[in-house]
Design brief:
single chain; 326 residues; alpha+beta; 3 domains; three-stranded antiparallel sheet; binds S-adenosylmethionine
Length: 326
């Protein structure tokens, strides 16, 4: 997927899309729906190309499945045929006379994993976007294209977009001047406080790719426009439908036998057999000290009164997963 300067677009990072005219890859459209229709048409044609579909790793899915998931040119649930246009439009021709030099970035980039953006969708080996922002700010200039070929949930795209966000940069501990220059507050060799310029504020474009269609789908939702109100309405509708259909499973009769209550959680307990009288001992009932929340080492059997410990008792029920025989 590819990201572009969010002028009127909404995402987890900004406001929602509107119906005003939009520009995309140099083309103008009356509104975003027209942009989408135009590029979906191009993608539909491209999907008929056998050579395109023969790209190794091309997702298994019908044209309609791929089109339904895609929002071209930003996101396609298959190799993105608009990449070349994107790079041509936003990229800069290599110019050998333009000096590019950066010291290797060596700094502590450890970040917590509790940022609401980070937690919006889980993924194994997910990287906090704030850590990535430091690298992008160090190595790139506003408007540059950043490629993440193994993007997972697209946190590199989130980071690239937030390099244009003053508050997010300040949250990293940097100072952003009125001229857009980002400075690191540090000390010189003599221990004197200095502001070291390290970058400039400004959105970077991101190209995000992953072998996993699920990952790119999450990445696209992290990085491109969506209508937050509509999302909320749909989510509410789905929750209401689930409540109506399955809510009964989460209800129980109160001890008065008449009124119902919602089950917030269920506590399971081992059930043992008393070694003396062979009757049932519900472990939680007998061993748990509700006042202290601790488990007693020894406890009496509620039926015969003989003191016992968990290790000395035999489990009464055991469940195991296995093949079912008829
Ligand atoms: C370490 S995870 C990236 C997580 C990402 N940084 C994030 O914050 O969500 C590595 C990703 O590489 C992808 N991957 C592995 N082999 C790949 C390949 N040959 N081409 C593209 N992606 C690949 C995996 O699907 C996985 O999502």
């Amino acid at each position: 997927m590819i990201t572009k300067q969010p002028k009127q677009q909404g995402s987890l990072l900004g406001d929602q899309a509107s119906s005003v005219p939009v520009e995309c890859l140099g083309l103008r459209f009356d509104n975003d729906a027209a942009r989408r229709t135009h590029f979906l048409g191009l993608l539909r044609e491209k999907l008929k190309d056998a050579e395109f579909r023969a790209i190794p790793g091309f997702p298994i899915g019908t044209d309609e499945d791929i089109l339904r998931l895609s929002d071209p040119p930003f996101y396609t649930a298959c190799p993105n045929p608009f990449l070349e246009d994107f790079v041509r439009y936003y990229g800069k021709q290599y110019d050998s006379s333009e000096r590019y030099s950066r010291e290797p970035f060596a700094a502590d980039v450890s970040e917590g994993k509790t940022d609401p953006l980070y937690m919006a969708h889980s993924y194994h080996t997910k990287v906090p976007h704030k850590a990535i922002m430091r690298y992008i700010l160090h190595y790139t200039e506003p408007g540059d294209i950043v490629l993440d070929g193994f993007c997972g949930t697209g946190m590199t795209g989130v980071a690239a977009q937030l390099c244009g966000n003053r508050a997010e940069i300040a949250a990293l501990g940097y100072r952003v001047g009125d001229d857009g220059v980002i400075c690191h507050d540090t000390q010189d060799v003599a221990g004197k406080s200095i502001l070291l310029p390290i970058s400039r504020i400004g959105y970077r474009h991101a190209i995000l790719n992953d072998l996993s269609p699920a990952a790119t789908f999450i990445a696209s939702n992290y990085n491109t426009r969506f209508d937050a109100t509509s999302f909320q309405n749909h989510a509410r509708r789905i929750l209401d439908e689930l409540e109506a259909e399955l809510g009964w499973m989460y209800k129980t009769l109160h001890t008065d036998g008449k009124s119902t209550g919602r089950i917030n959680y269920t506590v399971w307990s081992d059930v043992f057999s008393c070694s003396e009288c062979l009757k049932e001992i519900v472990f939680v009932h007998e061993a748990l000290d509700e006042k202290t929340g601790s488990i007693r080492e020894t406890f009496p059997c509620p039926h015969c009164g003989v003191t016992s410990s968990k290790d000395a008792l035999k489990l009464l029920y055991e469940s195991s997963l296995g093949a079912c025989r008829r």
